Amino acid sequence: MNLLTDLLSGLMPFDWLEPAFMRRALIGMLFIAPACAAMGVQVVSFRMAFFSDAISHSAFTGVALGLIFGINSHWTMVGFGVLVGCGVLVFSRKAVLSTDTVIGVFFAAVVALGIVIVSARRGLSRYFESVLFGDILAIDSNELWIMFFLFLLVFLFQAIGYNKLLLISLHSPLAHSRGIKPARWEIAYGILLAFLVMISLRAVGLLLVTALLVVPAAAARNLARSGSGLIWWSVLIATISAGVGLFLSYIWGSATGATVILVSVFFFICSYLIRLVMGR
């Protein structure tokens, strides 16, 4: 990754990219934002925004558990989030309750558990600022490698399963009749989404990670004319938003994650106006 950051310095000799941490932040955003945008297409199709919220809020408990047991809190945060995601997916298929209700129960449980742990150990609260707001400027080379492999994994998964997931979202019984196993694909997608959400907290924080998934995909829906166009528009909007948002955050001195999301929202508004003008 050091070679990539040095190469970026030669290819883009801008003042705002002169600090090494800014180059790492740009590379990290260019890994995370497109990956979230690609997965966000199904988040919108499957109406899973509440699911990603529940996963992201489990970060409180995951970090607290790591601090209590003396384990790297980044790993306990990710591990606990994926565990919660698996629990939601498995339980929602077995329970007679609606999926939203199951997610609501898990959401309440993980948030309440996190608050209980933090309130009982008051000294822990100072560790949660980066979880709430993200801190992409502080990532290191090891985290960049994780983001890179996650980026590859997401796009490999989409290359193999995008059409299958699209058919499942449109008509699950038809997908099953064609030999596709909706349950297996939904669970695999949910686990990968949970892992992506927890890693993305580093970039934009708990409060905005769902927006990183939903907003580019929502903008793409206003512009795309085909299923494949939906994912490519979403990825393009997220990638441009990542670069422009990072630059504007440097100029304004604002939070990077929030600025990236605001740029994405700007693109959504533009896409909506385009859709109105074109009458689609």
From TrEMBL:
GO terms for cellular component: ATP-binding cassette (ABC) transporter complex. The chain crosses the membrane at residues 20-41, 48-69, 75-91, 103-124, 144-166, 187-218, 230-252, 259-278. It is a multi-pass membrane protein. One of its GO terms (biological process) is response to zinc ion. It comes from the Bacteria. Keywords: Membrane, Transmembrane, Transmembrane helix, Transport. It is found in: Cell membrane; Membrane. Belongs to the ABC-3 integral membrane protein family. This is ABC transporter. It comes from candidate division LCP-89 bacterium B3_LCP. The lineage of its organism: Bacteria, Pseudomonadati, Bacteria division LCP-89.
